[in-house]
Amino acid sequence: MTRSFPHQWLIEQQRLGHALCVVLDSENEHHTRQAMLKNSRPDQYLSVYGQTLVADLADAGPFVFTFDRPGDEHINELLNRPDSHWGWLASLPKGGLPTLVEHWRERLVIGERPHQALYRFHDNRVLARALKHLPVEAYPAYLGPAISVCYWQGTRWSSTYNPAPGTYPVPDFPLWLQVPVTPQQAMQTRLLNARRFLLAEHVLAFATLAEQQDPEVWLRATLDQAEAWHWQAPEQLEFLLTQRLQAPTDTPVSYWQVRPAESPDEHFERVRLMAAFWQGDAPL
Q1: Per the database record, which ranges form the DUF4123 domain (predicted)?
Q2: Which of 10, 45, 146, 244 is the most buried (most CB within 10 A)?
Q3: Per-position DSSP letters for 143-210, written without gaps between them
């Protein structure tokens, strides 16, 4: 497909009488989001995280904008750099923006307490992998009111039509959550969930850290350490984040290091008990 494919898609969807919209990754596209906010009417955009359990992350969460012109300058700028993974395009029935946003709000938080996570539906890589693995009959429950979607698929543009756009309940066992994820997507999910945990449970300490160093660099380094130790369970990640937050610039003491023939679970339990002892919370 040529580079003009998404523009042709936009023109065709508008010709069919559909509304045009962009699902935008606000976290990495803050400048574009602000520019689009300045040029949009209040009824032309919504924050997906707003009015949800993660409303505190709304500024970094995805926004959905409808727009009137296939040649919109902000959209063209995005189309010229698909590898930046800014999001994806969709066509909707006229006035369908609130319905689309509500659709994704219902699918946003996955898992059960206390091990919940956020589904990164706004990432074109997540969308592309889901549509690659889902059977066509599962498209409606996944895409909801979207009539068609257009997205970058790693090396080319692609589009997928929804055979039955509409409003659907979330299935008991959503097939899109069984799609394998890439290591990069898994890390992005861990970063987002770690940031959410720190903002909810340790906001003052996290703010203090941000005054001393780049919090994103620190967060990624901490999660890289968790990955090296194979600490991926939620309680292991929360423990590591909390402990490292107490001394963000210090090198971990010797008992944190893995011992020969020690499994990840044995390593975690030993370190947890040692940390509790040295902090006066438990006998050794």
Answers
A1: 22-136
A2: 146
A3: HTT-SEEEEE-SSSEEEEE-SS-S--PPPSS-GGGGS---HHHHHHHHHHHHHHHHHHH-HHHHHHHH
**Model-level pTM greater than 0.70?**
no
Rg (CA), the chain: 22
The enclosing H or E element of 47 equals strand 45-47
| Max CA separation in the chain (angstroms) | 72
**Residue boundaries of the structural domains of the chain:** 5-178, 184-278
C-beta atoms surrounding 112 within 10 Å: 7
Contact 267, 259 (CB under 8 A): yes
- Cα separation, 108 vs 118, whole angstroms: 6
3-state helix, strand, coil in the chain (%, to 5): 50, 10, 35
Instruction: Determine the Cα–Cα distance for residues 151 and 123; give it in Å rounded to an integer.
Output: 10
Q: Are 223 and 205 in contact (CB under 8 A)?
A: no
In angstroms, rounded to a whole number, what is the distance separating the alpha carbons of residues 225 and 237? 10
